[in-house]
Amino acid sequence: MKAFEINGNTLSLALFIDVTNSKELLDSMQAGTLEPEAAFLNASLIPDVFPVLAAAHKTLVSKSRESLTTRTLHSELVYNYSGSKHITESLKRCGISESTTYIIAARFNATVDEMKAVERLIQGKEIDLEELEGRANQAQIQKHYKISGPELGISSLADAITCRIAARDAL
Predict the structure, then answer these.
(1) Which residues are bridge partners to 15 per DSSP?
(2) CB 3.0-4.6 Å disulfide test: which of 19, 47, 49, 105 passes with 124?
(3) Burial class, 128, CB count within 10 angstroms (exposed 0-12 / middle 13-18 / buried 19+)
(4) Per-residue pLDDT reduced to its tens digit, 22-76
(5) Euclidean distance between the first and final Cα of the chain, in Å?
(6) On the CB side of 155, how many CA atoms lie within 13 Å of its CA?
(7) Backbone torsions φ then ψ of 63, nearest 5 degrees
């Protein structure tokens, strides 16, 4: 687990492999009974922490303006990471599914105890965030974000995703 400071708030992230209870996590999230509340993202679409931090910043800005698009702060993070304006599609594509085995868990302003509780919810092995890049599904990321080969010649996958996250509302 690692915590990042964003404009006076923190975002705690933990990366898990070999997760066996995605269906239960998804059911709890959809029923609104997940305790403590957290965001679970499909980590195969995340090549680096930076785009997640960009999405988190956008989420916190929306919260400060009282203009969240989704029902919760944590679902807003998943929505903002997607780069799409379609809420349901964003949550399905960038959130977890019943069969997801590679997950990044995120929680805003979490105490140590709250993050330990989030970690206990997930039946899988926690690994270091440094492993994101090597485990990212580049083909799936390029397809989802419509990133071309020439674009990758001048920027990284993480930078391309971050640009799409930042520019979504302007387009």
Answers:
(1) 104, 127
(2) 19
(3) exposed
(4) 999 999 988 888 899 999 999 999 999 999 999 999 999 999 999 999 989 999 9
(5) 34
(6) 12
(7) -65, -45
What are 132's two structure tokens? 């994101």
Give the pair of three-digit tokens for residue 37: 């509340």
Token pair, residue 83, equals 């780069």
- Amino acid residing at 111: T
SS (H, E, C) the chain: CEEEEECCEEEEEEEEECCCCHHHHHHHHHHCCCCCCCEEEEHHHCCCHHHHHHHHHHHHHHHHCCCCCCCCHHHHHHHHHHCCCCHHHHHHHHECCCCCCCEEEEEECCCHHHHHHHHHHCCCEEECHHHHHHHCCHHHHHHHHCCCHHHHHHCCHHHHHHHHHHHHHHC
